[in-house]
Design goal:
The chain has 687 residues and is of the alpha/beta class. 41% of the residues lie in helices and 18% in strands. Among the domains are: 57 residues, no CATH class; 98 residues, Beta Barrel (OB fold (Dihydrolipoamide Acetyltransferase, E2P)); 129 residues, Rossmann fold; 157 residues, Rossmann fold (3-Layer(aba) Sandwich). Helix 8 runs antiparallel to helix 10 and helix 19 runs antiparallel to helix 20. The C terminus is likely disordered. The structure holds adenosine-5'-diphosphate and magnesium ion.
């Protein structure tokens, strides 16, 4: 067996008990150990003399234990160990709390290195609970930067450091170089052995930087290449349905009340070409809110149906699914296409009827929510699955949907624009199409941030729009702690508006706790123009489309993230009328002011998502776990974006030379990817 894959238990000095603790940290093998990265470092190169220590400083000094330790028990559960350290300039007191085992270790005369916070004690200066370490007579391990590791109870830093040193020794010269030689040379990377040693025990700050760059590079490289090879593998091994082109699609497009934008045409062409191949399509359509993704989806569904197959469209909320259903039924009904609607809240009888229609092939297009991927939903011949607002679903759900057919074509749509570099990581197994153009005549939504003492003026402004025949949304924030409470706040605001500020206008209410029938009625009333103002919770965030609505008031806007505000704002500005978005900001924090500022000055979804990333960081932004990505050990999708770009360029070069990604020239790298992505691949293709 390989030395790197050796069980951590067999490292000298580890044994079953410590290996149990290490496993809790996710360390099973020697290789895991060397990839257990320091969470920070203690810079001990600057060693001070005791006489120069000052309270409030973090300091490292060197000296001798100058006498026997005093052990005190001032309280029942408190054990203090006190002793002094002396160098040629003076004395300082060290205190440890509840570390009885130290008694045996602290031998008078022992030379030690101490690192910790200097404080004022009762008599002179004191250092409490420092890191303390024996040093040999030569003081050989004095001048260095020491790692501080993520740990777990029962496993001290000193132990981790010594296990790490042994692991590095074992790895030694057999450290494996997975990166191709050319890649190392082109990018001036250091070798893996140097990198691993210097990430744990940096010889200098410079060496640390070089090491870190190389390891971040490697981690991104393996992940990105892995995702690409999954994609290649899927393409090679799976056979899908090749669909034919058909004039009906042109007929359909010509019957639309508008002309497709160039971007819509281009993206549909990309989809269409994919669907004509007998390898399943795996494509992401990314387009800002309002760019017109739905119609592209409808054309794709039509293509599947006129070829004699079925198509499915899954949306994250019932409201959106229903809207799609009504819209698509209206568009495709005249072509003799049967569209059905499947959601969890249907009655048993209705559901059974629809399930039967799906199974017999009587239904051509099925539109619904998660209900589509439940057991018991069996398709007659499913050739295309579409997930709308993919960022609301995980990779797993997308895969479950695809598994409802025999290698159907897969299309996913998202309005959350992600910079390309990150999309390649998040959706690395997908081809990407971008609708980078809004339908003509759209005016940028004018956005204003106001405080709540201006509510009267704000709603006066809304009234003017209503009097001009337009409609308005009022969005109330989701209150995290309880779904009940956010419904409550929406109810209260609706009451307040209809009785006071917007008296005389028809105010409707929409929230997640309403029955499907009630929601349907409200949405319908709003669409028809019977309802002037729709007060709702964030249920209108995705997809809802009523072009005559031109004002959106967002209550307590400070509670929303930028991407969410942008999505919400996307509900207006869907016609030729000038639209407005008013953010009621109750917070004076710098961050919410910055958010409001960005919203007032930008309508470009890409810019906004980049800023959002900057403010929130990628973890919160994407919920990487939800996307099924492996956790990164040293690389950070946000902080190291430039390195990621470099990596992607490098991989593009490799793919040019080796388009099938056989990696025949790099057998080690290939083996590594197979090992690492075997599970991931299963997960992604979910077979
Ligand atoms: P999104 O990309 O946010 O899902 P939709 O598909 O809901 O956007 O489209 C937004 C609105 O724009 C809809 O009312 C739709 O009918 C309209 N629309 C779509 N394409 C065009 C176009 N080419 N010209 C004019 N209006 C369009
Ligand atoms: Mg949409």
């Amino acid at each position: 067996m390989d030395r790197l894959e050796q069980d951590i238990q067999y490292i000298k000095g580890v044994g079953p008990k410590k290996s149990y603790l290490l496993k809790r940290l996710g360390i099973n093998t020697v290789e895991d150990m060397v990839w257990h990265m320091p969470r920070s470092y203690d810079d001990r190169r600057n060693i001070q003399k005791i006489i120069n220590l000052r309270p409030g400083e973090k300091a490292t000094f060197y000296g001798k234990i100058s006498g026997r330790a005093n052990v005190l028990r001032p309280k029942k559960n408190l054990l203090l160990i006190k002793f002094n350290i002396r160098d040629e300039t003076g004395d300082i007191e060290i205190v440890f709390f509840n570390k009885s085992y130290l008694k045996r270790v602290l031998i008078p005369g022992q030379k030690v290195m101490v690192s910790g916070d200097v404080k004022k004690g009762f008599k002179g200066l004191q250092v409490a609970n420092p890191i303390i370490e024996k040093v040999d007579i030569h003081g050989g391990n004095r001048q260095r930067i020491t790692p501080i590791y993520p740990s777990t109870e029962g496993l001290g830093q000193k132990e981790l450091i010594s296990i790490q040193k042994r692991a590095l020794q074992i790895v030694g010269d057999s450290a494996r170089e997975y990166l191709p030689k050319g890649t190392i040379q082109n990018n001036k990377l250091c070798g893996i052995k140097f990198a691993l040693h210097n990430i744990h025990f940096p010889a200098s700050v410079q060496a640390f930087k070089i090491a870190k760059y190389r390891l971040v590079f490697e981690e991104f490289f393996l992940l990105q290449l892995g995702l690409f090879s999954i994609k290649k593998g899927m393409l090679q091994n799976r056979k899908g349905v090749a669909l034919k082109n058909n004039d009906k699609i042109n007929e359909f497009v010509e019957g639309l009340p508008f002309v497709l934008t160039e971007a819509q045409e281009r993206v549909f062409k990309e989809i269409s070409q994919d669907m004509e191949k007998n390898i399943p399509m795996n494509r992401l359509v990314q387009g800002d809110v309002g760019s017109g993704k739905t119609i592209v989806a409808v054309m794709s569904l039509l293509k599947a149906v006129i070829n004699g197959h079925q198509g499915g469209l899954m949306a994250p909320t019932e409201i959106l699914a229903e809207q799609h259903y009504l819209h698509i039924r209206e568009l495709l009904g005249p072509f003799g296409i049967k569209v059905v609607f499947l959601v969890g809240s249907l009655s048993k009888n209705e559901k059974n009827k629809i399930l039967q229609e799906i199974e017999s092939g009587e239904a051509d297009i099925v539109i619904g929510t998660h209900a589509l991927i439940q057991e018991g939903v069996n398709f007659y011949s499913l050739a295309l699955v579409i997930t709308d607002e993919q960022h609301r679903f995980g990779v797993r759900q997308r895969a479950m949907f695809a598994n409802k057919g025999k290698n159907p074509h897969v299309l996913v749509m998202t309005a959350t624009p992600i910079p390309r570099t990150l999309a390649l990581i998040l959706y690395g197994d997908l081809d990407i199409s971008i609708i980078d153009q809004l339908p003509p005549g759209r005016k940028a939504v004018k956005t204003y941030s106001r405080t709540s003492d201006k509510r009267n003026n704000i709603y006066d402004f809304v009234k003017k729009q209503l009097d001009d025949g337009r409609q308005a949304y009022v969005v109330c924030p989701l209150i995290e702690e309880s779904e009940h409470m956010d419904v409550q706040s929406a109810v209260e605001i609706a009451d307040e508006l209809s009785m006071d500020l917007l008296r005389g206008y028809n105010v409707g209410l929409l929230h997640g706790k309403m029955s499907t029938k009630e929601k349907e009625k409200t949405m319908d009333g709003f669409k028809k123009g019977d309802i002037d103002v729709l007060v709702s919770t964030t249920v209108v965030e995705v997809g809802v489309d009523t072009p005559n609505a031109t004002v959106m008031v967002i209550e307590s806007a400070e509670r929303f993230g930028l991407t969410q505000l942008h999505q919400l704002r996307g509900r207006v500005g869907r016609s030729n009328y000038q639209s407005y978005c008013i953010l009621i900001n109750n917070s004076q924090s710098k961050i919410s002011e910055r958010r409001m500022d960005i919203m007032q000055h930008t309508t470009d979804g890409f810019v906004i998502s980049e800023k959002d990333l900057e403010i929130r960081g990628p973890g919160e932004f994407f919920g990487t776990k939800q996307h099924g990505l492996p956790e990164l050990k040293i690389a950070d999708l946000f902080k190291h974006i430039t390195i990621l770009k470099t990596v992607q360029k490098e991989i593009e070069k490799i793919m040019m030379i080796d388009p099938g990604l056989t990696l025949d020239d790099y057998p080690m790298l290939r083996k590594k990817l197979e090992q690492r992505f075997y599970l991931e691949e299963e997960h992604l293709s979910f077979s």
